[in-house]
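re: ur question from yesterday

yeah so i grabbed the chain u mentioned. its 57 aa long if i counted rite. heres the sequnce exactly as i have it in my notes:
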Amino acid sequence: MRWLLLGALLGLLLVFPQLLAVVLAAAAAILSKPVVVAFGLGLAARSHLPRMRGWTR
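ran it thru and got these structure tokens back, copy pasting raw so excuse formatting
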């Protein structure tokens, strides 16, 4: 699924070259917000952390 999305994005960039500027501007706007970056890193790190069930008891 990830490769299909990447292929679709690259295909759109080939068909519409000006779309690259829009994608880069959107990425820069998202990366300029520290809260959004921290939330994304937290989501990415969560899948690598071990499950800690019952640690609050």
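noticed a couple things. Helices lie at 2-15, 19-31, 34-46. also The radius of gyration is 17 Å.
anyway ttyl
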